[in-house]
Specification:
424 residues, alpha/beta, Aminopeptidase, 8-stranded mixed sheet, 39% helix, 16% strand, globular, binds zinc ion, secreted, hydrolase, protease
């Protein structure tokens, strides 16, 4: 036992050594009901204020992380403008240390359990690494060839395979409506890939229990941004973007969800500064990761009835348009289906998801995948799903809650699937 403890302590020290430190960083919740003040607040993003509720809104509290060098100026700005604020994490680093310890311990427990399990299957007690995700998908394809095929949708900037799982019990024969899901375009939103993996696990390994889902065919990319995701595990927990090199800049990466080619660069919530967390890239689809999604979507575009992109956090089911405060022609059905899904989750689990137009409800952001699916491929049901957060900051949802959050959205997915199967 002591030996295990020492081993774990050594592992924590080892993983901590290579991590970017957030010692002295603070997190505040801030709130304003004035849209002009919100616009002013967003200018601080360029200075290095990190908005954690990446879609924010008037009158709702939002969490921001403040680096040590802005801890005089930013609170002064808030006071001068009478924006209410409250310090919730005085120092981010100990929170991250706790998360790393938690992740190592839950993984170690999972490894021990696996030795006694009759057969290795999906274990949702810890956050998987990209290599584990791909190994699991390949394994499924070998074991369940009649149900799932796994293909390479593309390669990331750093050469990792971006896999797509295609799940059907009728071999994609064209008789069923298709549902397209991607997850993990934002690296630090760890619950997003896990939710996509839980869906794949349920559809393939528990297909008899979930026969209603298989009235649709599924195309799922569980980790769009494996480079960024790996980087959040190894180096910087709050990394959001891809890891591509921006020529002429010391800053790397593009916000994949500002990189899609529908009203790209024409609107709010974007930055042309490569150092910004919402850098839109030098051109639409500049990112290999986004090209992979776009290519995969194009293959089946005419048959896709529902598009979902998994993010975290906030318990939102958001629909287009995102680039500006304009309602989609199909907004009544988008809203109706969103309400139906939210109600299914609330009834079964008590969790309250809210549906609505992303730009009006929250804040505009151009170049997102939901706009692309709806605008370019006319997929009339298109949503960005902001899954549940947890922990102190939102992104640090403890591994022990992965099962809860993924089960809740799975209930929502059942409602989505039933609607699509009945109506298309
Ligand atoms: Zn996101």
């Amino acid at each position: 036992m002591r030996c295990t403890f020492l081993f774990l302590a050594a592992l924590v020290a080892l993983t901590t050594a290579s991590q970017r430190s957030y010692d002295g960083y603070q997190v505040m919740t801030i709130k304003t009901d004035d849209s002009q003040k919100l616009d002013m607040l967003f200018q601080w993003q360029e200075q290095g204020i990190d908005f954690w509720d990446n879609l924010n809104s008037i009158g709702r509290p939002m969490r921001v992380m403040i680096p040590p060098n802005l801890q005089t100026d930013f609170p002064a700005f808030l006071r001068d403008n009478e924006i209410s604020h409250e310090l919730i994490i005085p120092n981010v680093e100990p929170v991250l240390e706790q998360e790393r310890k938690d992740q190592i311990e839950s993984r170690a427990r999972a490894m021990v359990n696996r030795r006694f399990a009759p057969r290795a299957t999906a274990d949702f007690s810890y956050y998987w690494q990209p290599s584990e995700i791909n190994a699991y998908l390949r394994n499924l394809a070998t074991e369940y060839p009649n149900l799932v095929t796994v293909e390479v949708a593309g390669e990331s900037f750093e050469g990792r395979e971006i896999l797509v799982a295609r799940i059907s019990n009728s071999n994609f024969d064209g008789t069923k409506p298709k549902i397209f899901i991607d997850a993990g375009v934002h690296a630090r939103e760890w619950i997003a890939p896990m939710s996509a993996l839980n869906l794949i696990h349920e559809l393939v390994e528990h297909s008899a229990d979930n026969a209603d889902f298989l009235a649709c065919d599924w195309i799922i990319i569980p980790t769009v941004n494996p480079d960024g995701y790996q980087y959040t595990h190894d180096s910087d927990r709050f990394w959001r973007k891809t890891r591509s090199v921006n020529q002429g800049s010391k800053c790397r990466g593009v916000d994949g969800n500002r990189n899609y080619g529908y009203f790209w660069g024409q609107g709010a919530g974007i930055s042309t500064n490569p150092c910004s967390d919402v850098f839109l890239g030098r051109e639409p689809h500049s990112e290999k990761e986004i090209q992979a999604v776009v290519n995969e979507m194009a293959k089946d575009a005419s048959g896709i009835r529902l598009y979902l992109s998994f993010h975290s956090y906030g318990d939102w089911l958001l629909f287009p348009w995102g680039y500006d405060r304009i309602l989609h022609d199909n907004h009544e059905q988008l809203n109706q289906v969103g309400e139906l899904v939210a109600e299914a989750i609330r009834t079964a689990h008590g969790r309250q998801y809210t549906t609505g137009n992303s730009a009006i409800l929250l804040y505009p952001a151009a170049g997102g995948s939901d706009d692309y699916a709806a605008g370019v491929h006319n997929i009339n049901l298109s949503y960005t799903v902001e899954l549940s957060g947890g922990g102190l900051g939102g992104f640090d949802l403890p591994a022990s809650q992965i099962v809860t959050v993924t089960r809740e959205i799975f209930t929502g997915l059942r409602a989505y699937a039933q609607y699509v199967a009945t109506n298309f």
